[in-house]
Amino acid sequence: MPVNSQHREYEIYKSQWKRIRDAIAGEDAIKAAEGEHLPKPAGQDSYDYKQYLKRSLFYGASGRTVQGLVGAIFRKEPIIDIPSRIEPLLKNVTLTGLPFANFAKMTVEETISMGRCGVLVDRPTGEDGQAYLRLYPAESIINWRTVNDDGMEKLEQVILHEERQRAEADGFGTEFYNVYRVLNLTEEGYEVSVYEEGEDAGGDLVYSAVESYEPKKRGERLDYIPFIFISPNDLTPPVDKSPILDLVNVNLSHYRTQADLEQGNYLTSSPTPYIVGQKNAENAAWSIGSGTIWFLSDGASTGMLEYTGAGLSFLEKSLDRKQAMMALLGAKLLEESKRTAEAAETLRIRGSGESSILSSIAETVSQGLAKALEWMAEWEGVDADISVELNKDFVDAKLTPQELTALVQAWQAGAMGQADMLYNLQRGEMLRPDANIEDIRDEIDQETQLDRDDIVEDEAEELEETDPIDIAAE
Which of 115-119, 147-151, 172-176, 272-276 has the highest mean pLDDT? Predict the structure, then answer.
């Protein structure tokens, strides 16, 4: 079995991933796939199909939905609890200049889009190399194997596809070629092998090992594979269905209906002339337009064929119905919230399904990234519990001036405690999202005490400056 062999789940899902990837990419990618997404109607030749394809229009709901969902999670910056010693590594977690916040956003986008991605923690060969993170999309994780270790499933092998580039043989231009990175866990520990695709003397495809190394932590080989699968629900290897697959399927159906409607409009929009009873009509050239005269035979007649009927209206209604379906499947999350027109409870009910999916994705990605950073820290010689918290508050919930005034008045009147007031201020985005309520209370107490000290000091200074005679007079 060659190194590029695919897992059986990969073979099942790869056609779905291609469909989703094209839909997110938009109209150019959809049309480049031609018959894969828009079958050629019976009776059309290649030229007619090309024109049919050009007239078609793709409604980019899938891509906009993904952008909106990612934007909802990153409406607030991630909260990261990490030792100060390795905090500088967050500015370049991939060794390509990518900061951690951007890496987290890419991870969320892949999880929402494909329902699957993976993060590898690696380091350059040599003891002085900095540990780094590498993100692999679903299509690049081609094979994996687990083993039962004392009742727990443990990764034993992961095979990752990479595409590299090099100069062409003549030195000009760029050649792309396939590479397969094999992560193995043996009895001796974790090891990595890299295989490059090529041809033998007979022109057959072969895979040759070009690199092999054993990543170590403090001089010791790892007893695990530092690779994390991330899906919408958990961090396990089995493939999950993409959260937006249903939306993509409706989006592509909408595209095919739209193509039929455009074709129908094209065929029926221009009246077509006809002649009945004309002798030798097949040998004549019939042009139409201003200044053109037709000489007809005796008894011949002419007229214009024009479209009538309700056939195309059914296609238009179908488009409306499918757009409504896409709205229910997530596209409505892209609309601005109408705070003045809809009650908060209405918004909560309308978005509860999507919010629960987003919450699960935010939680799972948070756990996966935290684990990756812990491994990264271990390789840098730091053992610590690291936490990553992605935003789960997807709706702008800032307090209005009236709400803020009412909240403070309730506290001043004794209707609520200070902790409850601060909690509501934080939920209303009036305080730092990463602030601890107890710390805020301590800060308030300290500032209040400082204000009191300043008042006492000012009063003392005023007393010193006051003339004793004036005091006696009083």
Answer: 115-119
Cross-sheet strand order for the sheet of 227-230:
132-137, 117-122, 227-230
pLDDT of residue 262: 86
The single residue listed with the structure tokens 């080989």 is 221
What does pTM read for this prediction?
A: 0.76
How far are the Cα atoms of 92, 143, 179, 228, 278 from residue 155, in angstroms, in the given order? 27, 11, 21, 10, 81
Question: From the CB of residue 78, how many other CB atoms can be counted at a distance below 10 Å?
Answer: 21
Beta-bridge partners for 149:
152
- Gap between the Cα atoms of 285 and 163, Å rounded: 58
Those residues with Cβ within 8 angstroms of residue 376's Cβ, 6 or more apart along the chain or in another chain: 86, 89, 93, 121, 131, 132, 133
The per-residue pLDDT for range 331-346, each reduced to its tens digit, is 444 344 444 444 544 5
pLDDT tens per residue across span 380-398: 888 888 999 998 877 665 6
Q: At 74, which amino acid appears?
A: F
Strands 216-217 and 220-221: antiparallel
Q: Letter for the amino acid at 188?
A: E
Of 31 and 205, which is predicted with more confidence?
31
The one-character DSSP state at 91 is: G
- DSSP one-letter string for 230-264: E-SS-SSSSPPPPTTHHHHHHHHHHHHHHHHHHHH
The segment with the largest mean pLDDT, out of 209-218, 343-352, 433-442, 455-464, is: 209-218
Which run of H or E residues covers position 353?
Answer: helix 344-379
φ/ψ of 470, rounded to 5, equals -65, -40
